[in-house]
Specification:
InterPro entries: Cbl-dep_enz_cat. It contains two helices and no strands. By secondary structure, the chain is an all-alpha fold. The mean pLDDT is 94.
């Protein structure tokens, strides 16, 4: 959380923050219900 706050204080956009998080943790893929 402190890193996100620091990014916001340096005027990073939500998209930029999300891209970094997506690169680091991946994107949620729901399981297929059969």
């Amino acid at each position: 959380m402190p890193h996100i706050i620091a990014a916001v204080k340096t005027y990073a956009t939500v998209g930029e923050i999300c891209n970094v998080l997506r690169d680091e943790f991946g994107e949620y893929q729901p399981g297929s219900a059969v």
